[in-house]
Amino acid sequence: MAKKAKTIFMCQECGYESPKWMGQCVCGAWNSFVEEKVVEFNENDNRRRGSSVKAAMNSGQPGAAPSRVVKPTRLTEVKTSDYSRMDTGIKELNRVLGGGLVKGSLTLISGEPGIGKSTIIIQAAAHIAQNYGTVLYVSGEESEEQIKMRAERVCSGNTENLFLLAETNMEVVMGVVEQLKPAFLIIDSIQTMYSEEIDAAPGSVSQVRICGNLLMRLGKSGDLPIFIVAHVTKSGELAGPKIVEHLVDCVLNFTGERNQDLRILRSYKNRFGTTSEIGAFEMSETGLSGIENLSGSFLEGLEDGTEGAMATAIYEGTRPLLLEVQALTAPTNIGFARRTALGVDNSRLNMILAVLERKAGIPFLNQDVYVNIVGGLRPEGTSTDLAVALAIYSAYRGIPGNSRTLAMGEIGLTGDLRPIQNAEKIVKEAARMGFTKVILPRRNQEKIKESIPGLKLIGVMNLKEAISSL
User: Fold this and answer.
1) Which helix (H) or strand (E) holds 465?
2) 109 in helix, strand or coil?
3) I want to staple 129 with a disulfide (CB 3.0 to 4.6 A). Which of 94, 161, 167, 192 is the partner?
4) Helix extents (H) in 286-409
5) pLDDT exceeds 90 at position 14
6) 63 pLDDT band (50/70/90 cuts)?
7) Are residues 134 and 255 in the same domain?
8) Residue 160 φ then ψ, to 5°
9) For the chain, what is the radius of gyration of the CA atoms?
10) Residues 247, 154 within the same domain
């Protein structure tokens, strides 16, 4: 049942409250009282945001609930300040976070089991403990001995301020946090935590939701940065309710292949930085180390004379990234031709094949087509369309590729090439990597005023012109 609001009168000069209007306040000010509506509230109500309301005096009656005056704030009156960031000691992680870990922020990191989530977190925790103060690592999955074994293997430096806690009760964890007052908190993982407020199993939707709310209140009220590890489903999506992703400030996803050393950390949400930023890591016996020249690692296998191979580029977050696209065509042995793509959306591949068949006269009805983005990366956007089409054409016609040629552009259904964003920055990166020829949409070429020595820009209007330049 909704509680009724009552009327009080508040002095604008000193904040004194009175149940009736007064001409002169106790502070001496005249005609300074204004009418306010207040509502009783439960002081132990954990569902409301206490920072958004203004505390007022109690009614004075025994057992009466306190009252609060709810007042909105003008946007122009809200004070802003620069967020202070903490260096995690991992350059690629700082890049994905937007420059470092913001105090009071909640960061959710997910990934397949064994991909390296706990490894990168313990490395960051050791650096923060050495430079900023106490760090609390709460684990609901591993024992303290298991965490210590990993820390001895991947962490360097003094870990005297790194504390471990094997606990799943949120109320116990919050009590330890209040007592220890850490500079950084890690929850591994939220699916193992539970609260005594509700009677449900850990990992259930209700428990994940309430634990996420408790962690949000804990981080925001204490200016405490929190890392939350989350499980994923079979399809690779975050397990649990979607509301947790809305609560947190940053959502990171860790991907990679178990049989490869490359790991990609991608930001899908970041309130303190850019989204779609990626960080590259290499897994070794001593932990994860950042890869600064990511384009070089993706292109190291690209050679001259290879059929069906083409270099392309995308713009991820704040940096250009060069990739290798491989394609293979083979006569089909069954009734229906097969279309297999790794790193490229299947519907996008079918559209490119349809444009190639119509504009280049290649019959794919009896051809199996395989396309792969080398390195296991799944680039977003459409700037790789032209490279995919040229790689397929090269594989079908048997045209040897050139390792110093790069192609980029979006293909329309009419066969024309549409311009892409950040083309000038990509061209400069291609020149730095030693490319001598770049095939790109003509509208992008016209906007690039600065000529780069040793690099030839070929602007094309449609797919036919691109094939001719190949």
Assistant:
1) helix 463-469
2) strand
3) 161
4) 294-299, 346-359, 385-397
5) no
6) very low
7) yes
8) -65, -35
9) 29
10) yes
Q: Which of 414, 401, 404, 405 is nearest to 463 (CA)?
A: 414
Please state, in angstroms and rounded to a whole number, the distance separating the CA atoms of residues 427 and 458.
Answer: 12
> What's the maximum distance between 2 C-alpha atoms anywhere in the chain?
96
- Going by C-beta distance under 8 Å and a sequence separation of 6 or more, which residues neighbour residue 208? 190, 191, 240, 241, 244
In a domain, 173, yes or no: yes
Give CA–CA dist 172/446, Å, rounded.
Answer: 63
Tally of domains within the chain:
3
- The model's pLDDT over 210-244, given as tens digits with 9 standing for 90+, comes to 898 899 989 988 889 999 998 887 766 777 777 88
What is the spatial distance between Cα 324 and Cα 379, in angstroms, rounded to a whole number?
A: 11
Asked if 273 and 305 sit in the same domain, the reply is no
Q: Are residues 303 and 390 in the same domain?
A: yes
304 with 403: CB under 8 angstroms? yes
Q: Is 393 helix (H, G, I), strand (E, B) or coil?
A: helix
Beta strands in 285-402 (DSSP E): 287-290, 309-316, 319-331, 339-342, 367-373
Look up residue 20 and give its DSSP letter: S
Q: Which single residue is written with the structure tokens 């292109």?
A: 299
Residue 44: predicted pLDDT: 61
- Rounded CA-CA distance 122/71 in Å is 43
- 255 - beta bridge partners? 264
Amino acid 48 reads R
Given the structure tokens 């780069």, which residue do they identify? 452
Contacts of 14 (CB under 8 A, 6+ apart): 25, 26, 27, 29
**300 lies in the same domain as 394:** yes
Q: Which residues contact 452 (CB under 8 A, 6 or more apart)?
A: 427, 428, 431
Statement to judge: residues 341 and 272 lie in one domain: no
Structural domain harbouring 48: 6-77
Residue 193, SS3 per DSSP = coil
| Closest to 256 (Cα-Cα) out of 284, 282, 274 | 282
For residue 9, list its beta bridge partners. 18, 35
Q: To which residue do tokens 């709810």 refer?
A: 70
Neighbours of 3 (CB within 10 A): 11
Residue 157 lies in a domain: yes
- Round to the nearest angstrom and report the end-to-end CA distance of the chain: 74
Kind and range of the H or E element at 445?
A: helix 442-447
Cα distance between residue 320 and residue 374, in whole Å: 16
What is the C-alpha separation between 103 and 81, in angstroms, rounded?
13
- Angle at CA of residue 375, ends 425 and 92, nearest 5°: 60
pLDDT, tens digit, for every residue of 116-144? 888 999 999 999 999 999 999 999 888 88
Question: 3-state DSSP call for residue 161?
Answer: coil
